[in-house]
């Protein structure tokens, strides 16, 4: 937890190096990293073709690692887990999303999701430090974007983020 807290603190000071990043390639790399967690599971990925964005590739990878590993973690009790990754266009904005059919959450606590050390599920059920989504929010905000979530208990969660498309 101390390491996660130090990393979270450094994110506020780390210089951002913007380059054109292919999100689809980063997602594939993160999925490969997650393979050991998927052994013996029935998990279906639905991934739409995604665009490129101007972003820091190291920081964007950290965002995707957190979002995808959470989706994997919170669907582990599902017989048939599904994780969808895609994009929607709304009012001249491109919004990327990661959606799962996992444990979900009560929307009345949604504001706590992105706060450091705030957890909506017991540690025994879903281990974690409570730093991941706060890290994601910090990175997205530093890139000039925004992130929010939608969900329902036992009906999954969707994390949506806005980023400027190149």
TrEMBL record:
One Pfam match, given by its short name, reads HATPase_c
Domain of life, source organism: Bacteria
The UniProt record lists the keyword Transferase: yes
Q: Which reaction does it catalyse?
A: ATP + protein L-histidine = ADP + protein N-phospho-L-histidine
As recorded in UniProt, coiled-coil segments are none
Q: Give the PROSITE patterns listed for this entry.
A: HIS_KIN (PS50109)
> Which UniProt key words apply to this protein?
Kinase, Transferase, Two-component regulatory system
Annotated ranges, domain Histidine kinase: 1-166
- Under Enzyme Commission nomenclature, its number is 2.7.13.3
Q: Does the keyword Calcium apply?
A: no
For this entry, the protein name equals histidine kinase
């Amino acid at each position: 937890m101390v390491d996660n807290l130090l990393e979270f603190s450094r994110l506020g000071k780390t210089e951002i190096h913007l380059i054109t990043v292919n999100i689809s390639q980063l997602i594939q790399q993160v999925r490969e990293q997650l393979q050991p967690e998927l052994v013996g599971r029935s998990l279906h990925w639905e991934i739409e073709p995604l665009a490129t964005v101007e972003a820091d590739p190291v920081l964007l990878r950290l965002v995707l690692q957190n979002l995808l590993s959470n989706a994997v973690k919170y669907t582990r009790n599902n017989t048939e887990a599904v994780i969808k990754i895609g994009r929607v266009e709304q009012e001249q904005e491109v919004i990327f999303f990661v959606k799962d059919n996992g444990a979900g959450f009560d929307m009345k606590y949604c504001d706590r999701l992105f706060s450091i050390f705030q957890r909506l599920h017991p540690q025994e059920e879903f281990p974690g430090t409570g730093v991941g989504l706060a890290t994601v929010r910090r990175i997205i905000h530093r890139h000039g974007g925004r992130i929010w979530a939608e969900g329902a208990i036992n009906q999954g969660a969707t994390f949506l983020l806005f980023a400027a498309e190149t």
